[in-house]
Amino acid sequence: MKELINNLKGDKGIWSFVMLLALISFMPVFSASTNLVYVIGKGSTIGYLVKHLVHVFIGFGLIYFVHKVPYHYYKGLSQILLPIVGLLLIYTFFQGTVIDGANASRWIKVPFIGVTFQTSALAFIILMIYVARYLAKVHDKEITFKSSFFELWVPVFAILALILPANFSTAALIFSMVCMLVFVGRYPLRYLGMIIGMGVSMLVLFVLFAKAFPDAMPNRVDTWMNRIERFTSDEPNEDDYQIEKAKIAIASGKIYGLGPGKSVQKNFLPQSSSDFIFAIIVEEYGLAGGLTVLFLYLMLFFRFLVQAHKAKTLFGKLLIVGLGFPIIFQALINMGVAVELLPVTGQTLPLISSGGSSIWMTCISIGIIISVTRKEEEIAQEMAEKEAREAALQRMIDEHILREQQREEAEAAGIEPAAFSIEDKSNPMQAVMGK
């Protein structure tokens, strides 16, 4: 175990908070799985717990593997993988799988394994790395709108256009995170304003096209519009039922909660193990449990800020911001939905909600971030060793000078100097280099 811990390089704070969030996830997922077992009639609670354990175990395996890869390798990988991800999104659009009662194809099934995979989550990671690579490349160079539009924004809009019909909330989150990243990367604000305006205009055109030709694509626009209307209206609806059950669960938890596994609303709340798992956490562990989860996400966010500040390269800084901040924002969105601050979006609680691809993609992002901190840790260690060698060399030089002065003083006084051996550090440079 000690050897394994020693092999975990990078920021120990990020490792710690990620592990704590993963550990916290097991009891709520196990408890909420009774909804699937006894209400829907699928599987067993132990089966869902083991499944979640396997997902988390694979996720940490991905973190370990990814954090061992030098992060600058991801520059080239993003250029190679971006077209591949585009093809996967096209395949998902036409041949994707519908699961969990969704009315859009967001998943593909991996051949021979039978595991479903949400391609938009992978596209998110690759796209953020691609944007970080571009911003690092043009740093301190004059940027023109034409060159940046074709090299940066055309790939971004192409990926968003493939995600938008099936998953508006994810497309909106990706676009907002890309805009945040280019802002941090000091992309000209006048160009960014033009891009945001173009993005809004393209969204309006898409909505109008979908309204005019409802059979041309999955019927998602009505779903978005209905959710917004339901959120702003007082009439009872399906989303109100979910939010009502979530609010009852939160209110029932009070300060210390009903206790592990004693949630009542998990039997009535749809998606209690994924989209609304925060409500189950508060019901079973109370306000104290909910604030603990929020505190861990905020501390993880703080570690991201610290490591982004410490990163020596702009690419490293942008990777931490582009991959780390969306994890925190997604968590806040999930919590905001549970307390009715935001309309229902379908975003899971990172590292806690059940689900394979969501956990794995979050873990890949964490692994890349830790890879950046690992490199900075190695640089700091090399600098410390260099400073220690220089200090040792300086001490030997000072000792050598002092001995020479003593020898000269002894000879001047006519005193026979003590014999000096060959190993008296007469050549301090050679002694240090020999070490």
Automatic annotation (TrEMBL):
It is found in: Membrane. InterPro entries: FtsW/RodA. Pfam families: FTSW_RODA_SPOVE (PF01098). It catalyses: [GlcNAc-(1->4)-Mur2Ac(oyl-L-Ala-gamma-D-Glu-L-Lys-D-Ala-D-Ala)](n)-di-trans,octa-cis-undecaprenyl diphosphate + beta-D-GlcNAc-(1->4)-Mur2Ac(oyl-L-Ala-gamma-D-Glu-L-Lys-D-Ala-D-Ala)-di-trans,octa-cis-undecaprenyl diphosphate = [GlcNAc-(1->4)-Mur2Ac(oyl-L-Ala-gamma-D-Glu-L-Lys-D-Ala-D-Ala)](n+1)-di-trans,octa-cis-undecaprenyl diphosphate + di-trans,octa-cis-undecaprenyl diphosphate + H(+). Its EC number is 2.4.99.28. One of its GO terms (biological process) is cell division. It is a multi-pass membrane protein. Its main location: membrane. One of its GO terms (molecular function) is peptidoglycan glycosyltransferase activity. It is an enzyme of class 2 (transferase). Keywords: Cell cycle, Cell division, Cell shape, Glycosyltransferase, Membrane, Peptidoglycan synthesis, Transferase, Transmembrane, Transmembrane helix. The chain crosses the membrane at residues 14-41, 53-74, 80-98, 110-132, 152-184, 191-210, 285-306, 318-339, 351-373. GO terms for cellular component: cell division site; plasma membrane. The keyword Cell division applies. Coiled coil: none annotated. PANTHER family: CELL CYCLE PROTEIN, PEPTIDOGLYCAN GLYCOSYLTRANSFERASE FTSW-RELATED. Belongs to the SEDS family. FtsW subfamily. This is Probable peptidoglycan glycosyltransferase FtsW.
